[in-house]
Design goal:
Number of domains: 2
Largest sheet: 7 strands, mixed
Distance between the termini: 60 Å
Strand content: 15-25%
Number of strands: 17
Strand order of the largest sheet: 1-2-3-11-4-10-9
Length: about 425
């Protein structure tokens, strides 16, 4: 392994690649009690079609999440229970582009890491266990369907996109997971859980060479990275300008926003998303004049938020919360973006926002839990998280003004509403 240093961030990282092609990152944190490991595969909810043995294979919505659940099952029992017996706290999650498996502990790091590497790379599925898990996930899906905040979010993405798989929930639907078989899970594991499509990141007072040796020993060789059939690029107009449904809520919930075209990759795309994030905060964040105006008028309340999110072949910027009249919020945001100008006060706020982002990033560098996950996400996106300070400094005020005036035009926005019965 080679030691790489980022003096500006005060971070050192050991980097290496196993003979099988698995990238390994170890962030040494001498004196820290918590030790953390994050083992991830580049397989998520947006992976819906792949070339397998020269033929196209459709992947039902929810397959990546289903596979995440099933990998904890081993012939000798539950991997989660064995990790708990070693004193570790384990978990896993599935996103639109990545599935991550993790544990934290204060002792027995090496045997815990062995357990993690074994169960993630050892698929074990039977038709009976798949059927049992299907029932569990079906109940999880039903629970989400009863959650108004998840409903408004799901409807928002379906209003924005016509065909992109981000329209579908990561968990899938009761119908889509009904078709998933043990054979499907084995095929997806073979295709996506190959070392060249995975990454191992660890942090804490740990031994980099021991971690690398365990990865060499326990992660078997696999094929090349999977050949995905990427979703078609869509234009910037939404599929629907407004969608609404009724649920037993006390006041309307809303989510509105616009698509962002992903025409860049790596650090260049990360800069585009950072520009979007800072620009949206500048227009709609808690410290903005527009938010203060809407809050003082009673148009929005403390639940109002603004955020950005990116995924394979796309991204979005959006705002949401509770309000009396979502249409009025939309109109005020459109007018506010059109009238926005980078005056001296706005320039000063942008600089404060950039410093705040850098401060939050630097705080995450002291977290054994946050740093490995951040590095894994950036690895799959083709850049290094330590490039963030330079990306933030490169953003200019004129870019933020142009972004807001272009993005928050009425013809680009979709509005999702959950209204009271």
């Amino acid at each position: 392994m080679k030691l790489k240093e980022w003096p500006r961030c005060g971070v050192r990282v050991w980097e290496g690649t196993t003979a099988a092609g698995l990238p390994v990152y170890v962030f040494p944190m001498p004196g820290f009690q918590t030790k953390y490991a994050f083992f991830a595969a580049g397989f998520g909810g947006c992976d819906r079609r792949i070339l397998l043995n020269g033929k196209g294979k459709d992947i039902p919505a929810g397959t990546a999440h289903f596979l995440e659940h099933k990998l904890f099952d081993m012939p000798e029992g539950s991997a989660a229970e064995r990790l708990a017996a070693l004193g570790a706290s384990s978990n896993a999650y599935t996103g639109h582009g990545m599935t991550g498996y993790l544990f934290s502990c204060t002792e027995n790091f090496a045997p815990c890491l062995e357990e993690l590497l074994r169960f993630v790379t050892t698929p074990y599925f039977t038709p009976e266990s798949v059927d049992r898990e299907r029932e569990i996930i079906s109940r999880e899906i039903a629970m989400y369907e009863d959650d108004p905040t998840r409903r408004v979010d799901r409807r928002f993405f379906r209003a924005l996109y016509r065909e992109h798989p981000v329209r579908d929930p990561i968990t899938g639907t009761a119908e889509s997971i009904g078709s998933i078989t043990a054979e499907d899970l084995y095929e997806c594991h073979e295709a996506f859980y190959t070392p060249r499509n995975m990454v191992l990141c660890c942090a804490g007072d740990v031994d980099p060479e021991r971690i690398m040796a365990l990865a060499e020993k326990l992660v078997p060789p696999g094929g090349e990275a999977p050949v995905r059939e990427e979703p078609a690029e869509e234009d910037l107009t939404p599929a629907s300008v407004r969608v609404e449904e009724k649920m037993p809520v006390s006041m309307p919930l809303f989510q509105l926003g616009a698509k962002l075209l992903r025409r860049k990759e790596g650090a260049a795309w990360a800069r585009e998303m950072l520009l979007a994030d800072l620009s949206c905060e500048l227009l709609l964040g808690v410290g903005s004049p527009l938010f203060a105006e809407m809050y003082d008028a009673g148009v929005v309340d403390h639940s109002f938020f603004v955020d950005t999110y990116d995924f394979r072949r796309g991204g979005v910027c959006y705002a949401g919360g509770r309000c009396g009249d979502p249409g009025e919020v939309l109109a005020r945001i459109v007018d506010g973006a059109e009238a926005f100008r980078m005056d001296a006060a706005a320039v000063a706020r942008l600089e404060r926002l950039k410093r705040a982002r850098l401060g939050g990033f630097l705080m995450s560098l002291d977290s054994p839990e946050e740093l490995p996950e951040l590095q894994a996400e950036c690895r799959f996106d083709g850049w290094d998280c330590m490039e963030l300070p330079a990306l933030a400094e490169s953003i200019r005020p004129g870019e933020a003004e142009a972004f807001l005036r272009e993005t928050f035009r009425p013809e680009r926005l979709a509005l999702s509403v959950i209204a009271p019965l």
